[in-house]
Amino acid sequence: MDEMPTINPLPPVPARTDDGDVFSDKANVFVAALVPWTTQINALASYLSGAFTTAMTALKNAAAGSASAASASELAAAGSASAAAQSKDQALAYKNTAEAAAAAAQSAAGLPSLTGNAGKALVVNAAGDGVEFSFPYAAAANVPSAATTNIGATTTENITITGTTTISSFGVANAGLRRVLRFTSALTLVRNATSLILPNPGNLAVAAGDTMEVVSLGSGNWLCLWYQPVKGVVTTDIGFGAVGSFALCCWNGASTTLAAGSVVAGSSLLTVELNQDQIFPSGASFSGTWRLLNAIRPSYQFALAQRIA
Q1: How many CB atoms lie under 10 A from the CB of residue 54?
Q2: DSSP 162-183
Q3: Angstrom distance (rounded) from CA 84 to CA 62
């Protein structure tokens, strides 16, 4: 754009107080300056008019460009929305296809349906020939007592043992399998040092309501981890004088001194009976081998002992 024109200042204006010659000189100079000054004014006006026109044209063009860009953006946004909708439809189609393929593969592999099995674990079924969804801690399954009570055949960890039949085995199950048992009736568990390891040296007489947890050691062997009688006490009757039983006894023979923990032959001990707060030997000796639970001293020849063999 051309440089903006300049306007020269006018010379001094003649005043009435000037002398005749001075007034005439100033007037001549002033009038002579008006012609070029007018030309400069017109040039500036023309310049400003052109500048204004140029600015308005540029502004108009910029507004038109913005409108065009906005229209293009609108079209692009519409195109993006359309593409997004198509992508959504394609994704849904892919999802449906994948689910159908998964269901077909699942059915072909013999797997149960996922529908209605939220939160369940996929486990091998009791028959061992397939899988099924199950809650490991679901409601207890009822299993009737039998000589061999197969507690490993259920898919739930909680089992209610019904009936009164004596149990000698819990059946064969994979090592590490655990079961929590609750008994509804009194029955006897036959202890075995290998296949049915119980927390006492003899058979276990359980009562209705008693509970226990057992773990499979594999090959049909089970270990009782804990046993809780319903009354809080063990109701086991292993018989007086049997291995594991306890007895109050006295030393059979001359006065002696033995430390607690000593192992002695049962023939060295005599049974005692209580009568009116006094202890009297009954004369019958024991059999087997016993461990003294307290010391025998010359002044006190009585002891509590447990048969260990």
Answers
A1: 11
A2: ES---B-B-----TT-EEEEEE
A3: 32
Q: Which residue has the tokens 């568990």?
A: 189
Structure tokens at 51: 């500048």
In which residue are the tokens 């804990």 written?
226
Q: C-alpha distances in angstroms, 303 versus 258, 264, 268, 292, 306?
A: 10, 12, 12, 6, 10
- Alpha-carbon distance 309 to 147, whole Å? 27
Residue with tokens 């032959």: 265
Q: How would you write the pLDDT of the chain (309 residues) with one tens digit per residue?
A: 578 888 888 888 888 888 888 888 888 888 888 888 888 888 888 888 888 888 888 888 888 878 787 777 788 778 777 877 887 888 787 777 766 766 666 666 666 777 777 767 777 766 667 777 776 566 788 999 999 999 998 878 899 999 999 999 999 999 999 999 999 998 999 999 999 998 877 788 888 898 999 999 999 999 999 988 876 544 455 556 677 777 788 887 778 888 877 888 888 887 776 554 445 555 667 788 888 888 888 777 778 888 877
Report pTM: 0.41
- Write the CA distances from 88 to 77, 84, 91, 92, 123, integer angstroms: 16, 6, 5, 6, 36
Q: Residue ranges of the domains in the chain?
A: 1-109, 136-228, 246-307
For the record, the structure tokens of 164 come out as 């009164």
What secondary structure letter does DSSP report for 300? B
Number of Cβ within 10 Å of residue 1's Cβ equals: 7
Helix (H) or strand (E) holding 65: helix 20-108
Which H or E element spans position 62?
Answer: helix 20-108
Q: Are strands 221-228 and 196-197 parallel, antiparallel or unpaired?
A: parallel
Tokens 């048992």 identify what position?
Answer: 181
